[in-house]
Amino acid sequence: AHYVLTKPLHKSQRVRQRTDSFVDVELNLIWNREFEAALFEFGPDVELLEPADKRTRFAEKIRALAVRYM
């Protein structure tokens, strides 16, 4: 959470909720491969909540990676 708060992923980043265990941020951007790669860099330390179609596709890519490296 500290990293995302000190180095925002995008200029539109806005904190929606913050607790001791997580930070929920909102971004208003056009989804592209560069942004997707930035999310992958966080590994298990990030969870994509919305939009649902991007979350589903993100999960599919994670499953494909897991199969490849198991």
Cα shape: globular
Helix content: 40-55%
N to C succession of SSEs: HEEHH
Beta-strand share of residues? 5-15%
Total helical elements: 3
Q: What gyration radius follows from the Cα positions, in whole Å? A: 13 Å
- The strands making up the biggest β-sheet line up spatially as 1-2
Q: What are the segments in which pLDDT stays under 50 over at least 5 consecutive residues?
A: none
Q: Termini separation (Å)?
A: 29 Å
User: Averaging pLDDT over every residue, what do you get?
Assistant: 93
Beta strand count: 2
Q: Main sheet?
A: 2 strands, antiparallel
**Which structural class matches the secondary elements?**
alpha+beta
Write up this protein.
With 70 residues, the protein is α+β, with helices and mostly antiparallel strands. It is built from three helices and two strands, in the order H-E-E-H-H. The chain has helices spanning 2-6, 33-41, 52-69, and strands at residues 14-18, 23-26. The chain has a two-stranded antiparallel sheet with strand order 1-2. Strand 1 (14-18) and strand 2 (23-26) form a beta hairpin. The longest helix is centred in the C-terminal third of the chain and has 18 residues, at 52-69. The radius of gyration is 13 Å and the shape is globular. The chain starts with a helix and ends with a helix. The model has no long low-confidence stretch (mean pLDDT 93).
